[in-house]
Write a structure and sequence with these properties.
Structural class: mainly alpha
Shape: globular
Number of strands: 0
Helix content: over 70%
Number of domains: 1
Order of helices and strands: HHHHHHHHHHH
């Protein structure tokens, strides 16, 4: 058990650093927090965390290695992810200005306009699942830091704890960006917030399109 504890500690040390680096997941949670409120952002966070389990699962099964070495499969995943981010970006750019009363959590007005729980979860899951960088991250990370002698069940526990940690991080992000003072500041930007997040999504999509398989 001691060797697994040290192995997991090393894995988490690397994962924790990369987890807090802003990317498409972070932008998605921030936008959900500001535009749709805490409930939508938290559910989206669970979608992102569940998607991480998806990445860990195919890594353990060895499918991730196949995808990372197959130019065709990797390209299909890459272009699907890029297209989705571009779609989110264009949708954000076309959104109208926000009003403070429309996102007041205490009054509940914002929650009425929020997407359904299923849609929020799916948005988080798809945003993370269609990121081919995850393939390039989990495959070499597990190969380098997790012994091939480590049982699949133990690796699964590693993945579960990583997913819980990721959900916890984004729930924390959701809590911060749904504080009344913080949301009010972003809403004051009105249409500019939508344009800013839209351009970030588009930029991430373009950047993703340039990613090369290892």
């Amino acid at each position: 058990m001691t060797q697994y504890a040290f192995e997991f500690a090393g894995l988490m040390a690397v994962f924790a650093v990369l987890m807090v680096v802003p990317g498409a997941d972070f932008v998605m949670v921030v936008r959900q927090s500001v535009v749709h409120g805490r409930r939508a952002a938290v559910i989206t966070s669970f979608g992102i965390g569940t998607s991480l389990l998806f990445h860990v699962s195919y890594t353990i099964l060895g499918i991730g290695l196949i995808v990372s070495k197959s130019l065709l499969l990797f390209s299909m995943l890459k272009w699907a992810g890029a297209a989705y981010l571009l779609y989110l970006g264009i949708k954000a750019l076309r959104s109208g200005p926000m009003e403070l009363s429309a996102i007041d959590v205490q009054q509940g007005a914002g929650e009425a306009r929020a997407p359904s729980a299923g849609r929020c979860f799916l948005m988080g899951f798809v945003t993370n699942a269609l990121n081919p960088k995850a393939v390039l991250f989990f495959v070499p990370l597990f190969t380098a830091m997790v012994s091939h002698e480590t049982p699949a069940a133990v690796k699964g526990v590693y993945g579960l704890l990583m997913a819980v940690t990721l959900i916890g991080w984004f729930v924390g992000v959701s809590m911060f960006f749904t504080m009344a003072s913080v949301r009010a500041r972003f809403v004051a930007w009105g249409r500019w917030f939508n344009k800013a997040t839209g351009m970030v999504f588009i930029g991430l999509g373009v950047k993703l399109a340039t990613v090369q398989a290892g």
